[in-house]
């Protein structure tokens, strides 16, 4: 990348650490989103979280005074749906490891969804390990157990594609980090020997899905994130410029040392500075 686009038509925001921190909005984030909406710029909010449906994020952001719509929210589950729609339309029946938000998103997309946690209960009653599925889709499921892994392993052995909504090793909570979806994915990779298709950041698939669905090319898009390893690297892998904002996990000292795909086109202190960098580039 040689710099920020001269004409920005799409801005993709990470959520936690950029738009809000925990339950509190980042100062200036609401105004930044309002400015972009008023300028006619397409706005998307992209999160690796697969547990919450998009409507849940609309409600969460609305409670913070940030107006958005379901079509502007992209979770790793909804990005997976878009990826399948464009690249594997033959996938209809899926075995899912994940939370209710994942089930809702997959079902609303018209997929035939079986939850591994429910299928696995039949195993204890002497039922078959798993029937045939087109794909196994894995997200974060705090209740995943050995038998959920077993039925997923069996489905992959039967020819199902193995798809990870994301491969985050850790999941942040107010009380500290817990194992993320990547921990479950790693167990299935070990058991099956199959390399999964990974959709969430830093894989480019999530950003590519956003670009495809919006009809806006990478040359006119910008990703705004706080994580060089996920947001910046993922953006660059999709050919999109990145702005690193220092309201989350990154600080100025660390940002100054970034190289390669982790080095953003711009480093800014806060949402106000994001607007200052983009305001003259909107078209």
Task: Summarize the structure in short.
With 283 residues, the protein is of the alpha/beta class. It has eleven helices and 15 strands.
Please state the overall shape, judged from the principal axes of the Cα atoms: elongated
Count of alpha/pi helices? 11
Named CATH architecture of the largest domain = 3-Layer(aba) Sandwich
Helix content: 25-40%
Judged by helices, strands and strand pairing, the structural class is alpha/beta
Number of strand elements: 15
Major sheet: arrangement of strands: 5-4-1-13-14-15
Largest sheet: 6 strands, parallel
CATH superfamily of the largest domain: HAD superfamily/HAD-like
Whole-number tally of structural domains = 2
The poorly predicted ranges are none
Backbone CA Rg: 19 Å
Polypeptide structure, described:
This protein is of the alpha/beta class and 283 residues long. The chain folds into two domains: 119 residues, HAD superfamily/HAD-like (Rossmann fold), CATH 3.40.50; 110 residues, 3-Layer(aba) Sandwich (Rossmann fold). Helix content is 37%, strand content 20%. It contains eleven helices and 15 strands. The chain has a six-stranded parallel beta sheet, with helices on both faces. Strand 4, helix 2 and strand 5 form a beta-alpha-beta unit. Helix 1 runs parallel beside helix 11, helix 3 packs across helix 8 and helix 6 crosses helix 7. The radius of gyration is 19 Å and the shape is elongated. The two termini are 20 Å apart. The model has no long low-confidence stretch (mean pLDDT 93).
Overview features:
5-stranded parallel beta sheet; 11 helices; Rossmann fold; alpha/beta; 6-stranded parallel beta sheet; elongated; 283 residues
């Amino acid at each position: 990348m040689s710099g920020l686009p001269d004409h920005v038509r799409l801005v993709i925001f990470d959520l936690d650490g950029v738009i809000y921190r925990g339950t509190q909005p980042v100062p200036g984030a609401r105004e930044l989103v309002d400015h972009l909406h008023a300028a006619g710029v397409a706005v998307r909010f992209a999160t690796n979280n697969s547990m919450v449906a998009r409507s849940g994020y609309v409600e969460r952001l609305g409670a913070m005074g940030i107006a958005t719509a379901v079509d502007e929210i992209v979770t790793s589950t909804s990005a997976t749906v878009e990826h399948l729609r464009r690249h594997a339309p033959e996938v209809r029946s899926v075995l899912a490891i994940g939370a209710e938000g994942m089930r809702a998103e997959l079902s609303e997309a018209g997929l035939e969804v079986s939850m591994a946690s429910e299928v696995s209960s039949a195993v204890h009653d002497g039922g078959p390990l798993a029937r045939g599925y087109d794909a196994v889709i894995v997200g974060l499921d705090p209740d995943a157990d050995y038998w959920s892994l077993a039925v997923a392993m069996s489905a992959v052995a039967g020819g199902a594609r193995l798809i990870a909504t994301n491969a985050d090793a850790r999941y942040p909570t107010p009380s500290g980090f817990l194992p993320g979806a990547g921990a479950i994915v790693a167990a299935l990779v070990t058991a099956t020997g199959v390399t999964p298709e990974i959709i969430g950041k830093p894989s480019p698939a999530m950003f590519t899905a956003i670009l495809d669905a919006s009809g806006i090319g990478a040359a006119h898009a910008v990703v705004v994130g706080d994580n060089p390893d996920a947001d910046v690297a993922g953006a660059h892998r999709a050919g999109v410029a990145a702005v690193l904002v220092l309201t989350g996990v990154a600080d100025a000292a660390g940002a100054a040392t970034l190289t390669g795909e982790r080095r953003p086109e711009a480093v800014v202190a806060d949402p106000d500075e994001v607007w200052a960098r983009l305001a003259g580039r909107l078209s």
